[in-house]
Amino acid sequence: MAQNLPTYLLYAEDAGLPPSDVMHAESIAERSSLHSWEIRPHRHEALFQVFHVQSGTAEIVLDGRQHRLRGPGVITITALAVHGFRWTSDVRGTVFTILESHIRQLLAHEDGLRDAVLQTRCEPIPAAHRRGVLQAVASLATEHAQHAPWRTSAVDAAMTQLFVTLGRALPSALAREAGVGDRAVGHVQRLRTLVDERFREQPTLGQFAAELGITTTQLNRACRAVLGHPALAVLHARICLEAQRELAYTTLSVKHIAYKLGFTDAGYFTRFFERETGATPSAWRAQAVARQ
């Protein structure tokens, strides 16, 4: 079934998160109402989601297991975990969709908190923690929406506070494994971790496969089954995302950005970027600056 399962950045959207941001926030009803309150099973290639269900009821599928949750509760979903929802029309709550690689970077020095956060689970919120979770959710949503000075730092601080609050409110989740259970998905998850760590070096597929203990053919087969595209596209997408961030938020020359990303030829970088995005680096930067 894996090759037929939809894999998205954001549900039913090809564009996903804007490259200039690491998070998207919206009400649960905002998207679900467009789909008659039912989101069919799918997965996200690189995104972690936090659903804060303030009220209302959901029937949820998480990696083949059926759950029913009545708010207040929390659902967290790791990248590549299969999930689907059927919400009641009176649902109230917020969903945060975050680049999982950003969470790993943000919590790099807090292994226990990182492992507590990056799990797939569905939990009611204990009464003693409901106010704290609601306040942390509201703070993150506000910082993300208002575009105030030092927004990036403020969003990271609010995000960390939400993760700490959830880690303290839901300690039982530490005892369970996310357990995707599919070997191909496991290979893809490990590949994504390696890509996040080493994309600037631009390793070969053979090097990635060797570190995973499989052949390049097996690696490509796993990526096509889970993601719908070959393994090299995972590396290219990560390089392109970093290039877009550098173009949007720095004044570095295109040549300097190319060298930072492991390209020895700025012309080749320009051709690579245009092939991936449909625009040259300079044109993309001009559009990004105009949007800011």
Automatic annotation (TrEMBL):
It comes from the Bacteria. It holds the Pfam family Cupin_2. One of its GO terms (molecular function) is sequence-specific DNA binding. Keywords: DNA-binding, Transcription, Transcription regulation. Signal peptide: none annotated. CDD domains: cupin_HpaA-like_N. InterPro entries: AraC_XylS_family_regulators, Cupin_2, Cupin_HpaA-like_N, Homeodomain-like_sf, HTH_AraC, RmlC-like_jellyroll, RmlC_Cupin_sf, Tscrpt_reg_AraC-type_HTH. Residues 189-287 form the HTH araC/xylS-type domain. This is Helix-turn-helix domain-containing protein. It comes from Scleromatobacter humisilvae.
